[in-house]
Design goal:
Elements (H helix, E strand, L loop, with lengths): L1 H19 L9 H38 L2 H23 L11
Organism: Amycolatopsis sulphurea
Keywords: Membrane, Transmembrane, Transmembrane helix
Protein name: DME family drug/metabolite transporter
């Protein structure tokens, strides 16, 4: 139930941010308003990101490397960047690098 509650909270926050910034804020240009909103939201989400993302991922990674056979641990560590390159190409047709469109 926690995930659904967090999703509703995120939707409510996005709706409030959209309604508050529907009219320009006096004294702030739209870019500054967006930057402040993203910084504030990022600061609020940082503890949740650490708890749900960084801590379990790091624990699983280091636990797996310390309890696996050395050959499997080395193979996993070496294949991880290759996998991170091949999967986007295979499923997202991501070839090359991003560059902005010429004007």
């Amino acid at each position: 139930m926690l995930g659904g509650d967090l999703a509703r909270l995120a939707a409510a926050g996005f709706a409030v941010f959209t309604l508050v910034t529907a009219k320009p804020v006096p004294g702030l240009d739209p870019m500054a308003t967006t930057v402040y909103g993203c910084l504030f939201g990022g600061a609020l989400l940082a503890p949740a990101a650490a708890y749900f993302g960084i801590v379990p991922t790091a624990a699983a990674y280091f636990y797996g490397l310390t309890h696996a056979y050395p050959v499997l641990g080395a193979l996993y560590a070496l294949l991880e960047p290759l996998t991170a390159t091949v999967l986007p190409v295979a499923f997202l047709s991501a070839v090359g690098y991003w560059r902005p469109e010429p004007r």
